[in-house]
Write a structure and sequence with these properties.
It is built from five helices and no strands. The protein is about 70% helix and about 0% strand. Helix 3 packs across helix 4. It has about 120 residues and is an all-alpha fold. It has one domain. The chain is elongated, with a radius of gyration of 36 Å. The model has no long low-confidence stretch (mean pLDDT about 80).
């Protein structure tokens, strides 16, 4: 308690000197630049916006690296499709449903038309 009383007496005898004034102005300026009061419409976005944008930049760089890896993978697949006829035929069969010579496709999936025919027969 005595420490608090002595601190209050010190504050009561406080005098503004030019150095203290400049330190107070500089402190207020740094506080305004911090961006803490930006949601209230006071001051500049400052450090808070810098941190948010820096985080966004790192996210975008990671996303760019992932896309670069995917592009490299697709370039490799494209090169293999251009070089190998076997790979090209396999991809055509897989994506377009084509059938090669002497091949048969058995479709065991239950389509809506076959389900309707089964229910009508029952």
């Amino acid at each position: 308690m005595s420490a608090l009383v002595s601190r209050l007496r010190t504050l009561k005898n406080f005098e503004w000197t030019p150095n203290r004034l400049w330190i107070a102005i500089f402190g207020c300026w740094l506080f305004m630049l911090s961006g803490v009061l930006q949601p209230l419409g006071i001051g500049s976005p400052g450090v808070v916006q810098f941190l948010r944008l820096n985080s966004l930049l790192s996210d975008r760089q990671a996303q760019s690296a992932d896309l670069d890896a995917e592009i490299a993978k697709l370039d490799g697949e494209s090169a293999s499709l251009e070089k190998s006829r076997v790979v090209l035929e396999r991809e055509i069969r897989k994506t377009m449903g084509y059938v090669g010579e002497n091949e048969m496709i058995f479709d065991f999936s239950l389509s809506s038309s076959s389900a309707l025919r089964r229910s009508a027969a029952d």
